[in-house]
Write a structure and sequence with these properties.
single chain; about 130 residues; alpha/beta; 5 strands; about 20% strand; globular
């Protein structure tokens, strides 16, 4: 399947690791325009809508910060995964992004792991 080379396509990579979907945010996320928010949401959420018990890992190891648009996308993804009987975890957060998650109290909503492999293993054990 051919993919379009758009700003939202460059902001994330999506991979399957067995039953786990790993969404890796790239540095392009830091420059993603607010007007592309719905396009980014569709890119992430459409595949999850078709899954039962989706297991999602957001790998943030390649970004040093993100804003409210991405926080909203994380929340939407988590709600959708939960509604379909799944779960979500975060991996690879920097000190700056960990502080943002702490200030918003989202660090108590989602488990945070140092590496994507730790997050994948934890979700598969649940």
């Amino acid at each position: 399947m051919a993919t379009k080379n758009t700003a939202t396509d460059e902001a994330f990579t999506i991979e399957r690791h067995g039953d786990v979907t790993v969404i890796t945010a790239t540095p392009a996320l830091e420059k993603l325009s607010f007007r592309l928010e719905e396009q980014a949401a569709d890119l992430i959420l459409d595949p999850i809508k078709k899954q039962d018990n989706p297991l999602i890992v957001f790998d943030l190891s390649r970004v040093s910060y993100f804003g409210s648009m991405f926080l909203a996308l994380l929340i939407r993804t988590w709600k959708l995964a939960s509604a379909h009987g799944g779960s979500m975890a975060i991996s690879g957060v920097t000190a700056r992004t960990r502080e943002l998650l702490r200030v918003t109290s989202l660090d108590i909503v989602w488990p945070i792991y140092d590496t994507r492999n730790e997050a994948i293993e934890a979700l598969l054990l649940d």
